[in-house]
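quick one before i forget lol
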Amino acid sequence: MSTATAIVAEDEATLRQQLVEQLGQLWPELDVIAEASDGIQALRLLDEHRPDVLFLDINMPGATGMEVARQANGRARVVFVTAYDEHAVAAFEQGAIDYVLKPISAARLFTTVSRLKERLNAPPVRLDAVLDRITPPSTGRSYLRWINASVGQNLRLITVDEIVYFQADNKYTRVVTSDAEALIRKPLKELVEQLDPQVFWQIHRSTLVNARTIAGVARDFRGRMLVKLKGRDDNLLVSDTYTHLFRQM
């Protein structure tokens, strides 16, 4: 069997280093091909490297370990690095996800490594059921934080903070950042429901703009309102329905 590969995602640098070192001692054949300090970086590394195993801190900035695990569902074997309570650990024991408790115990990590070695001979299993059991209930509205978009033949992960505007384009939606464009199949109507309305304003039936990227508004020779953007030359048309958004500008 070829060498197994792994990514370690943990925002605490000391703990991340400790985990990598202990893995090297307990599983010398394991190739830790990348390390991530936040969830968004972990998502990008997952798409780039397609590892056999993901070690995920549950509470990371950018995207939580739970969110990363849902993206890794059926693609990699997942191990959570966690300080969760006994009830969550019981859920881990029943499912396909393994765990390592903080502070990291060599004995517990040895058990995890042994289980992983056994599972490498079979494809990664679906994690839906166990993720639903261990995901804590939401305390409020959760908005979309990243998307996977097509750029040529490649798939790129883009955080919503990078996006200047979305625009409907036939069967696709254009995703425009300060320096690039991509396409997604998610319709604009669906994006309106998933994005924070305080950040992304609908200014036309076919356009959503990141309010933080608006430089100002102007009128064209026909009197139509146009949105000017920071860092881009595009001028976005505002339909009459949405001109009220700019009365203070």
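fyi Helices lie at 13-26, 39-49, 65-72, 86-94, 106-119, 128-134, 188-194.
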